Amino acid sequence: MAPKDSKKKAGSAKASTTPNVSSKSKDEGKPFPKTSISFSIVMAVIAFLGGVLTPPLRHMLRERGDDVNISVSSPYIPLPFPLPKRVPCTSSNLDNFLHAAPVSGLHVVCVEPMYLGGDGEDHLFPQWDDLREQNKILDQFDSVRLTSYKNSYSAPVKNVVVLRGEDGEDVGRRLPISWSKMKNLLYTELGLLHEGSKQQPWGLYTTSGERIIGELDEVTDGDGFGSSKHIMSSIVASGIIVVVQGGNWLWPGVREGFLRTIELATPSNAAISGSRNITIETLSLKPLVLSIEGFLSEDECDYIAKKAEPTLKYSGVSLKDADVGKAASNWRTSQSTFLPAQGDPVLLDIEHRTASLTRVPRDHQEYVQVLRYGHTEKYDSHHDYFDPDHYRSDPNTLNLIEHGKKNRFATVFWYLTDVEDGGHTIFPRAGGLRELSYTDCSSGLKVKPQKGKVIIFYSLDASGAMDPSSLHGACPVGEGNVKWAANKWIWNAPMGYVR
Questions:
Q1: Domain co-membership, 98 together with 141
Q2: Is residue 188 located within the same domain as residue 290?
Q3: What's this model's pTM, rounded to 2 decimal places?
């Protein structure tokens, strides 16, 4: 059974013409075609701002963009107007995203701009290293070479196609590639599913987790922010894009022990929030479990525990149909309380920092649930997601999850104290193992509590499906020890818990 949530509340894409694709192209290194001066000036300003607004700051602006007009069809605030930082499609860069085995729903695509030469052939632009050259390319590209790594699989066989703009009225000129045409090609090449009764719309991201566009996002007219031209410029400027079938960003695990350093926004007080650079370590690929040391300061940990203590009560659970009438203490013996962040600058800062860490908007979060485990107290292995098949007699839960379309996507678990004996978080199915029982703590991945550390584990995989291997529990705490921790549950859609 899943732990209780903090609060319970009760279009398909338009088709376009089939893209004209081919694998034929000429070698890179040809001279630039003629450039539009006016557009280059505009793009120079945009690119300069893009260099000032780094990815986590863009994420923070998106999180706090109350004055931004958001389309009714999408719960997300689009990528701000500055263009993403380019990540060239090199082997070393791809190594940060590709896996030795397929990862369902997580796709990596290299995007290389091309132009129609005087010989009637497509030519790759030369590699660029300054913004002025990028402006010329974004003004003049009329085709792109796409190298797709479906399911982020580093197989030797990859799919390469060229997507061209439609022929223009002038001989030897093409019209710009539309986002609609690009989207249709992605459906075909990656086997993407359309949004449905149990499927969230997919999303397209930069390699730093900044969302560029989603399946159902509206496209504005003209050449401004949110237009087809802006979207395609953002995609080409990125170099490598990541398409996630489930719609929400998740950090690719790559392999056990993989280390990734990312930039983290510090939205209010840098002294409280700590360093802007953090390192994510992959502890497990299935389930996907990531570890971040020093995410919380010691003062923050102490503050959260002290604030929670007066309202602690013995924890409840959301009972499955088969368990109705049983006591929660059969599985869970900890104490807990929920803390809203409104009016609390420390908790509010951590909420925004958590959104920056996960690259999932803050309005997907629940209130933080603070936990206290004394000697022998534990929580037997369970899932954080709600399987609709197990709640058929619970209309409130079924309405909450919209019969399976909405669900808990990820858990950011905060360790507020060190624990010398026991208190590990256990994942008994990690590495393909099978649990001996839901109470067993003898095998599987075990994470030792460490003050200030957080782990992220994903209840849904990249395709948006429930991941049974995300089964996890809290092992009993040893004598003379007390474990303080906290859950920050993140859903796959906005839920209205935090504002």
A1: yes
A2: no
A3: 0.84
